[in-house]
Amino acid sequence: SIRRQRQMCIRDRLKRRPKMLIGKPGLDGHSNGAEQIAVRARDIGLEVVYDGIRSTPEQLVVAANKLKEVSDNGNKVIIAGNGGSAATASHFANDLAFGTNDYEKPFKVMSITDNTAVLTALGNDYGYDFLFERTLRALGKAEDCLIVITTSGNSKNIILACLLYTSDAAD
Predict the structure, then answer these.
(1) Is pTM, for the whole model, over 0.85?
(2) Average pLDDT of the chain?
(3) What's the CA gap between 149 and 169, in Å, rounded?
(4) Are 42 and 123 in contact (CB under 8 A)?
């Protein structure tokens, strides 16, 4: 498929498989979505680091260290979600950017659900399914970390963000 070919191009550029970190340390309904995203990411050949619903403190430290590695390399963490998950994405972005107390080298982080003007323009011009994918094309790159927050894992805009971000962001 075209997505798999693009993912292979990124693999060649990075000299490794693109990674997707998926974490879900709770039993509040988001677990199914996290599992759906992990399966789809593996299906297109991504290396999936999945810290599932029963993450240990040690596993959470590993996930936190991966986020720090992204930041230390000058890349950003991009977070997306729909509905209540959009509010969670905003809150998490705020916590990473300003709650980490590292004022010398803060996290570069953004919640792509926070710009109402961009979201409504893209929804109007391209359709709701493409909100996140279009934003990631403009702002994302292969070395960034995309975090999606989803209850169902079936939202087309979340799926397209995951699939297209990992295959197109560096183009």
Answers:
(1) no
(2) 79
(3) 19
(4) no
